[in-house]
Amino acid sequence: MRTLAITVGDALLCFTFAVALAVPIKENSEVSRDKRSPGWHSEPEGVWEKKLVWKEDWKQIWKTEKKLIWKSEWKKEKVPAWKTEKVQQWKEEQVPAWKVVQKPIWKEVQVPIWKEVQVPDWKKVSKPVWKEIQVPVTKTIQVPEWKKNFVPEWVKEGVPGEKYLGKDEHGWEYTSHDLWRKKLVWKPVWKKIWKPVQKQEWVTDKKLEWKDEWKQIWRTEKKQAWVTEKKQEWVEEKVQVWKTVKKEIWVPVQKKIWVEKWKQIQVPVWKTIEVPAWKKVWKPVWQKVWVPIHHEHHEHHEHHGWDK
């Protein structure tokens, strides 16, 4: 950034000088301009001018970069170690001793027992028997019966006397004698019908009865008897045994411990360094260029700066 600022400052300074000097340079008339006769053909007239151009250039700069390096450091860590220690333990040993024990022996003895025996016996049992009997039942039967009904019937009946019937269109009267008429009467009729009647009858049925009988059975009874058995008895006897006793001893034991130790390790760190680099810059340069002058046909209208 410092290099870039200087370069821009130089450019501005050069640009100021270029503006101040970007005017035609008036040189000696004998060098820059020669008046010739019209019929003389020579090189075109012109003037030398200074022109500011920018020229490409490469400038070395220093660029900041980070580089990974390894730095040695000391680190405290715990490492395992073995330490011999004596610890107290109990060791079992076998020593002889005398012990009184109970020893079982078998002895034959007579013991009473109850034995089951089968003895005959008579038992009264009831046996089912089916017996035929007469039982009354009620049965529904149909019996004939006469029923009196009345049915309607039309009969012919005479009407005594004279009956006036009316007049005709000429005024004659009409009468009737001994007329007949229909009369509805109810006539009795006897009709045969069937009537249900409950009638008692006797039917044969089976009835279950129980009959007593005597049956021989075998009854279990208990009878006392004597049998020989072995009875266990305990007698005292001295026997030699081995008795376990505990004895205190000290045994070495490896115990794991942790001790502190310094260890050199390599840790990565970032280091800021300056490395060279090339930067492209533009430098102002003044160049001398030849600018030709073009004349017009009407020379009496020309006005040059150097003629005033």
Automatic annotation (TrEMBL):
Protein's UniProt keywords contain Signal: yes
UniProt cross-references to Pfam families, sorted A to Z: DUF4816
Protein's name in the database: Golgin subfamily A member 6-like protein 22
Signal peptide location: 1-22
Keywords: Signal
PANTHER family cross-referenced by the UniProt entry: PROTEIN (PUTATIVE)-RELATED
The keyword Ribonucleoprotein is annotated on this UniProt entry: no
InterPro entries referenced in this protein's UniProt entry, alphabetically: DUF4816
Source taxon at top rank: Eukaryota
Lineage: Eukaryota, Metazoa, Ecdysozoa, Arthropoda, Hexapoda
